[in-house]
Amino acid sequence: MSRFARARMFIAPLVVGFVVSGLSFPALAEEPAPRSLDPSTYTPPFTLSSPVDGRDHYSDSFGVIRDDGDRLHHGIDIGAPLGTHVLAAAPGVVTRITEGGTAGLYVEIKHADGWLTRYLHLNNIEPPKPEPEPEPAVEEIAVPEEDGALEGEAAASETPAGEEAPAGEDAAEPPPTEETVPAEEPIVEEAEEIPVEHKGWGTPNGIAVGASVAAGDVIGYVGYSGNASSNAPHLHFELRMPDRTPVNPYPFLTGKTEPRTLYVVPDITDDPIATSIEVVGHFDPGEGFNGVVWAHNGVAYMGSHGDDEVCPASGVRRYDVTDPTTPVELVPLPVERPGTRTSAIWVGDVETPSFTGTLAIVAYTACDGDSVGDGGFVLYDVTDSSEPAVLGIYDTGSGTVGISDLDVWHGDGVVRVIAAVPNSRMDHEQRLGDVRIIDVSDPVWPADIADWDFRRDGPMTMRHAVAAEHDLRDLHAAGVAFDVDGSRAFIAHWDAGLIVLDLSDPSEPTFVGRDASLGHQEGNARSVVLDPASGMVVVSHEDLDPLEDEILGTSWGIDVAFDARSDADPVLLSTYSLAHAAPDDDGRVPLSGMYSPNEAAVAEGYLYTAWLSGGLRVISLVDPTELVEIASFIPPTRVDPQRRFASPNGNIGMPLAWSVHIDGDLIYLSDLNTGLWILRLEEPPLGGQ
User: What span, in angstroms and rounded, lies between the C-alpha atoms of 586 and 36?
Assistant: First the structure.
């Protein structure tokens, strides 16, 4: 399936361990295996009924971020008028009734197999006692007795002081106490006799620790005690496993689930896990959706992501990293393409007859990969980092989704861009190819040089044979890279594999060779990078949906190394993949993390790949026939603030290492949820070149 045909990608967490906090530290923590999140594990052995009288419609607020990400919502909130009956959701025994703190008045009930339900923010406001009505004044008339005393005086003297009047038929009975009222006949005030907001408060008679309750029994009343707002009375309802792990009650109350339904809250961690890598600096914008990253001349650039209808289009954030231990936020590059996300960034110093200075090129693609967006790239003058200015705009054209990847070559007064425009050949009104070559030597007026498409321009016999085995839309270009001198280009075609083009005449790209092995059973060639020193090309094959059925899977993805030095077909050398990315002996792949390669970079004999939940992996290229991991960095587990990404089994807490760039001895890594990380390999690097 095409990456751009998916409605949404599901990303999962890797539960990470503790590492000593601080800006610079070695991480000695061992990387843990992913925990199981099979929803059946989190299904209670009983049926839940509505915990609020008259309410059977709910919203799923489980796992919502609270306190700026410091905690997550462990239940769901059910709004109702103050005093509405709160009902036991299942049979059980009351184990706790507590009042105070943020929970306010709450009741806990223990059910079958030790499962628990909790009912928070119950009404604890005692209604005001009614003022006694004054008795009407009665004018007393003195009637003389025979002895001349008044009637009132005689009555007052009938009972001597200090003695009680005898109890007769007309004597007043003492008011009933809780002990004297039978549990099955609780005192209920008439609604019209007290204000609506005081229909019910506290807990009903008979509801005490140790009391047995049936489903539907009244155990309290909706309120706003604790830290709830008085403007929004509601019940905070929790379902917990016997070990007190919070479980989302929403799917069990409603029978409704969706791919992003969260069953349990993730483990939130403060520290990353690093092996042979030093953390130099970190900056978290706090908004999530952190995208592609680049660094040049003491400035780091971090793009913004988007997903379907949630597309904040935050532009490109920038940071002064002249002191990499303390990144300082600069004014962002202005947003010029609404409805898009940042897909690629390139920044460098160029010199042409039309422009001399620092040029930034930012590529955009539609947030919804199935829809037409305002895609293309924008060229900025960032020579003065304090005053970035737009120079020009390149539009990929009507019907296209935008650019998935680009690379830049410059020299001899010329600047060229090669860009991948997925399925441009299928969707563009003029049927332009997926691979575009653009002259941006005058950045104010970018100009097309050529376009190329495997489905149109590849060798006829080859393209027909490949098209017979694949959906044509799955043969789109996804990743691109120039050779060192700009004379060749390497194209990662999603299901057509790695293709090499001759660009000695950039106006007429010609086919050189193709790797037919694909390297991954489903193809999915996502990105490509070149090692200039060795001529090795590495293609990352991603798979965001590795399940062949509901249980068995293929693989989350793989990095594949090729020898592409000759003007012929590239030669497969070796592969690398995470242990968590491959299926086990039973053919099952882990579902609690998404261990797929996303973006990669090569420098000084090392391959750096961002493996989403698997974090950053650093691979030595010394022996191209055996790719060996020598360092790793896994960002802290966080929840996507936009709550758009979840694993296939519903977890939304995850590290999401997204993009990586190397500048000198510094590694710039973006994490979708935790922002910009500045790293450095420990010295001496292990297995380096």
Answer: 15
Beta strands in 265-413 (DSSP E): 273-275, 277-283, 290-296, 299-304, 316-320, 328-333, 340-351, 356-366, 376-381, 389-395, 405-411
DSSP 267: -
| Ordered DSSP codes for 188-206 | ---GGGS-GGGS--S--TT
**99 contact partners, CB below 8 Å, separation of at least 6:** 105, 106, 124, 225
Question: Which residue type does 195 have?
Answer: P
Its pTM stands at 0.71
Distances in whole angstroms, Cα of residue 617 to Cα of each of 393, 559, 634: 35, 11, 9
Please give the average per-residue pLDDT across 497-523, as a whole number.
85
Q: Where are the alpha helices (DSSP H) in 197-315?
A: 250-254
Query: If you search the block for the tokens 């008339």, which residue do you land on?
Result: 141
100-127 burial: b if 16+ Cβ within 10 Å, else e: eeebbbbbbbbbeeebbbbbbbbbbbee
**Tens digit of each residue's pLDDT (9 = 90 or more) over 372-418:** 557 899 999 999 999 999 999 999 998 898 999 999 999 999 999 99
Give the pLDDT band (50/70/90) at residue 28: very low
CB 576 within 8 A of CB 620: no
* Both tokens assigned to 40: 């059946």
Give the model's confidence band at 170: pLDDT under 50 very low, under 70 low, under 90 confident, else very high: very low
Closest CA relative to residue 592, chosen from 513, 652, 552, 517: 652
Amino acid at 613: S
The total number of residues shown for the chain amounts to: 689
| pLDDT range class, residue 264, cuts 50, 70, 90 | confident
Q: What is the pLDDT of residues 109-132, one digit of tens each?
A: 999 999 999 999 999 987 776 676
- SS3 for 450? strand
Cβ atoms of 495 and 516 closer than 8 Å: no
* Cα–Cα distance measured from residue 597 to residue 612, given in angstroms and rounded to the nearest whole number: 6
Q: Judge whether 653 and 666 are in contact, CB under 8 Å.
A: no
Nearest Cα residue to 262 out of 611, 530, 618, 652: 652
Mean per-residue pLDDT of the chain: 80
pLDDT of residue 277: 96
